[in-house]
UniProtKB/TrEMBL annotation:
Descriptive protein name: F-box domain-containing protein
SUPFAM superfamilies associated with the record: RNI-like (SSF52047)
Alphabetized InterPro entries for the sequence: LRR_dom_sf
Gene3D superfamilies, A to Z: Ribonuclease Inhibitor
Amino acid sequence: MVCQRWRSVALSTSALWNTIWLQSHHLKAITLRSVSIKMLLALLEEYIRRCTTAINIRMDCNGPHLRMFNRIPMAIYHEILVTVTRYSARWGSVELSIDEPSFDILRSITTPLPMLCSLSITFWPTNNPTNNPTFTRLSILSQAPQLTTAHISTPLQLIQLPHVQLQKLRVDFHKPFTAYDYEALRDFVNLRRLHICISSGISGPFPPERLPFNQLVCLALVHGTEIMNHLTLPSLRELKLVRCIFSSLIELPMLCHMLVARSHCNIMHLHLNMVMITAQELSMLLDALPSITSLTLDNLPATTRDIFVALTHVPGRHRLVPLLRTMRVKRLSDDMVIAFLHFIETRLDEAPACEVAQLKKVHLGVDNQQAMRCVLPYHREIFSRQGFTLDAN
């Protein structure tokens, strides 16, 4: 039972109703209970009616990423989408998984999208729509003056994006990255954050003119690191590499060295996640990026005892990552613990003449929790007296 006052407060608090997340297993359970689609749509409209601000909608109901028994009939999905599009003028952020008929539903939108600031579209076509001469691009986003963030998991030529105003873009290429895709990226002149996932390789050749993203501060690449050779990024501060494999010992260090030299940028934050390189390659990479202040090594085979030895400050020896202040590392095994703690101790010196920056924070993801519980409490107390934070999970 809920008292009348609390019920009134709940119904009138728009923030309680401004997010609608339709998940496949919830909708599947509803259909199995024989709840009519009419009742479902009425409930959806009631939610929207109670929200007086921008609406955030996420429809993760269909697509090959879902198991067959979790998918719902597309007819139901389309009816839900039709209902949602009637309120498109109040969209704040939208995340959709769609098919060709859904594209037609979105094309039916004629009103402006004044509140839309974030969009994510995953398009799983049964056939290649670019081979269909009657297929037209989705152009409704030209009416979204506030749109600054987009995640597109479909060929860029299918959606007309407001290139100039976008500041954050993620593009997933499920087919080989071609010269056409390369040229399509050239229009996004004001991007500050770019995330590219190339899961099916790169198919060149590309034009000789490099892409000049003059305002880009963060670049994230999943596979496809070869594209770094075709970019000029003078404002780059953060580099994220995920699931990358390299053919030679010097490929990644050379790619980063040439990018920095060509762009005259200072990469301060480096994030490596499941990157297949050796400890020697990692040392060469860190040596090529002396401006790093924050380093993340996530599920990296190269995270070995030798790396912590190389990061340890020894007066008179070549300094690796001298400006390091924050570090995040996973897979810290027993044989690395002593070298890891020694690395920290040598970089806590606050003396003005110290050749390295004072380390401020380290976050750990460890393999052997029991061993670390015995070591960390004592050292955490000692380190905390010097203003240092050592977190572990």
